[in-house]
Amino acid sequence: MNLEILFPYLSLAVYLLFTLWVGLVGYKSQKNTAEDYFLANRSLGAIVLFFSLSATNFSAFTFLGFAGSGYRIGISYYPMMAWGTGFAALTFYFIGDRVWRLGKQKGFITPAELIADRFQSEPLKLIFLAVMVIFTLPYLTLQPIGAGYLLENLTDGQIPYFIGATFVTLAIVFYVCIGGMKSVALTDVFQGILMFILMIVALMAIAKGLGGIGEANQAVYDLKPELFSRQGADNFFTQKKWFSYVCLWTFTLPMFPQMFMRFYTPKTTDSLKVATIFYPIITIILFICPVMIGMWGHLAFPDLTGKATDQIFPLMLDEYTSKWLASIVMVGALSAFMSTLDSQLLALSSMLTRDVYTAYFRPQAS
To answer: What is the pLDDT of residues 313-333, one digit of tens each?
Structure first.
């Protein structure tokens, strides 16, 4: 019994210590240059770049939000998100290739530097910078919120939400500050692999508890058949909404600053080609898992409403898996939060440092 109580803390401690160790590896190989700190010296290989792009974009929303949307909307949420997000990978190459070439040729580090040079307009640079920063901040805050809820659930309330969110944020700030992009990219590889494996483990474990995937889907269909319709529950997805979602994902994903800056980091554009090919594959495999878990949630928790639906993923783990397995899977969810938050923090710090601090206040800063 004592071991069962301690296991969430042990799994969390092992994960955080290993993550910090990987961050220190990046710090030890760091050179004292802006390109090395913010862009890993433009030297990321294909595998590291692929996992870095994936882990950066798959966030708290992938675990909690997808499952909650599966609960509210149904299976139609999966193809919309998988298609839109996967199709956006084309922009990794068609936009990323040009960004990489210009960045390497002219030494750009931030997105705003490219815009300023391309259009020879300082006001446009500042508008572009402001839009990226302002619209990233709400997305950034979702990650510690998700981490706080997760740790509170994982420890049965022994780690309160605010303390958990603060603790995770401080851990990320530590390895981002000391190691920059190298630490972030290396931890992304570890966190991306962990997230991918444990999401599939969660699906299989919960399905087993429900008698199998087919049996679980049949039970949900008998209970709420509208969850299997093309429009989703309450006719959520109209044709216009489908079209707008796909366009939104396809054309705006590269505009996340943490994604845009990844285009500067490869050693060659071949790395971008690899990411373009494999990124859609991972979205097809990964995204179905939380959506189905969310749908199955109606079998055990039929009356959830509002933001409570976003807690269906940890609720299903508690209901249908052992404490030790639930703890490990929730650590996988934590890795999704952290891999997005560290990239967002590094991207925002690079922009505020390069585009504001050294540009207008202290040009001679080291």
So the answer is: 989 998 998 888 888 888 888
Query: What are the φ and ψ backbone dihedral angles of 243, each rounded to 5 degrees?
Result: -60, -45
Q: Which of 44, 331, 63 is nearest to 186 (CA)?
A: 44
SS3 sequence of 128-165? HHHHHHHHHHHHHHHHHHHHHHHHHHHCCCCCCHHHHH
44 φ/ψ angles, rounded to the nearest 5 degrees: -70, 135
Summarize pLDDT for 100-152 with one digit per residue, the tens: 999 999 999 999 999 999 999 999 999 999 999 998 888 888 888 878 888 88
Q: Using an 8 Å Cβ cutoff, are 82 and 310 in contact? A: no
What count of other Cβ atoms lies within 10 Å of the Cβ of residue 162?
11
> ∠ at Cα 341 (42, 52), nearest 5°?
35
End-to-end CA distance of the chain: 54
- Do the Cβ atoms of 7 and 325 come closer than 8 Å? no
pTM above 0.70, yes or no: yes
Contact (Cβ atoms closer than 8 angstroms) between residue 143 and residue 337:
yes
**Which of 41, 57, 40 is CA-nearest to residue 184?**
40
